[in-house]
Amino acid sequence: MNFRAWFQCINGCSQTHELNEIIYRCPACGELFEVQHDMNELKKWSADEWKQLFIERYRKNEWPYGSSVWGKKELVCPNVENKNVVSTYEGGTNLFWADRLGKMLGLKELWIKQCGMAHTGSFKDLGMTVLVSMVKQMISEGKNIRAVACASTGDTSAALAAYCAVAGIPAIVFLPRNKVSLTQLVQPITHGVMTLSLDTDFDGCMKLVKDICANNDIYLANSMNSLRIEGQKTISFEIVQQFDWEVPDFVIVPGGNLGNVSAIGKGFRMLKDLGVIDKLPRLVCAQAAQADPLYRSFITGFRKFEPIQAQPTLASAIQIGDPVSVKKAIRALQEFDGIVDEATEAELANTVGMANRTGLLCCPHTGVALAVLSKLVKRGLIRSKDRVVVISTANGLKFTDFLFQYHQNQIPGVHSDYAFSPIELPPDYEKVREAILREVEK
Ligand SMILES: *Cc1c(COP(=O)(O)O)cnc(C)c1O
Ligand SMILES: [Zn+2]
Containing domain of residue 290, as a range? Predict the structure, then answer.
């Protein structure tokens, strides 16, 4: 088979570029690229043949196809040779049936796609495996790449650091000081990756890293590099496969730099073009009210978009005021009858508190998505019979500093409705029994 993919700019300028070229923006119009696939070649296989192939490979052991990203290699990045794939067996994350939480929110069917159950604890692994594999391929072809770099709100840097450490490729991460969780700061450090902690925010880090990468000997790993979008779109492939090729009514994803909402749209669109599915879900992008430039644009009907200065939010991974993938995201939302809404700090924190009571362990960003879901159900935009998937973007264990503060009721401006704390007692039978009886009678 002769599957092929290349970079083409999102405005469709005629010049295309190979995926092993070091280039991030269209030289003609300055816009971002997206990866285009030779759809005619892909369409030579029937929908049933694709489904069969994906089922055969899912979570199996033949390198590299057991990874749920590389199990769809032909649709993701056929250009990488298998020997250059850098994989941690990513994807294949649980689609959790949140039965109790769904009923509390007024839904028959709420599903949580647990993308945080990943090697580095977030969905960023899905895109990073593709990007770092392409880097390994380029190095093997003799390209002069001295290191790979990214700006990050904490999860991209963790993924870049791990994948580069797996491959033995040098990496540099640019982090905004005091704006990532302790776990996220520790991740690149423990992988021995150069970690820059800078007195600015994500948008400031992004400007710097772009300049550092302008010489082309340091490769840029942010999601303006559309190789990452190709890996992340497998979230949609997995959801469809996990529903036995049915399509949910709504998919809700927290958005910051807006690469992921674009990727999820691209995944569903591709499956529809290949005949694997016959309808599209509605896409919902959930933002923190403290960092909501897309929401502000949405309420103007996307007639205008203006970057803002993002304010501090518990949902630190989406504290972004100038999202690089905004055009892609708006196009995807328009195509998928999309909705954008936002959640305040109190809403996101208390929604995490509520969700965790039902056995989940949510990160603040998943809290943003769930809080927006709750609002849309109350407003009747999502009905109780709708099948809803919420994308949980990171593992709550990366954000125990937030959870600890929440349960101490110590988050400024937030009353913790679901605060719960340990009962400290001496190791004494009578006192322990007394405390238990008091608790049970409550
Ligand atoms: C990166 C990230 C997001 C936002 O994804 P974008 O593609 O930047 O919109 C949301 N949640 C978590 C946990 C993330 O790491
Ligand atoms: Zn162009």
Answer: 95-121+229-407
Q: Which ligand ends up closest to the CA of 156?
A: 1
Which three-class secondary structure state does DSSP give residue 9? Answer: strand
pLDDT band at 223 (very low <50, low <70, confident <90, very high): confident
Residue 70 maps to a domain? no
Confirm or reject: Cβ of 257 under 6 Å from ligand 1.
yes
> Which residue has the least CA distance to atom 8 on ligand 1?
257
Number of domains the chain is built from: 1
Residue with tokens 């690469």: 259
Average pLDDT, stretch 115-122? Answer: 98
pLDDT tens-digit series, residues 161-201 = 999 999 999 999 999 999 999 999 999 999 999 999 999 99
* Backbone torsion region of residue 216, taken as left when φ is above 0, otherwise alpha when ψ lies between -120 and 50, otherwise beta: left
pTM: 0.97
Q: Is 316 in the pocket of ligand 1 (CB under 6 A)?
A: no
CB 68 within 8 A of CB 76: no
Q: Is the pLDDT of residue 1 over 80?
A: no
Bridge partners of 395, per DSSP, are: 362
In a domain, 36, yes or no: no
Sort strands 194-198 and 109-114 into parallel, antiparallel or unpaired: unpaired
Asked if residue 95 lies in contact with residue 242, where contact means CB atoms within 8 angstroms, the answer is: yes
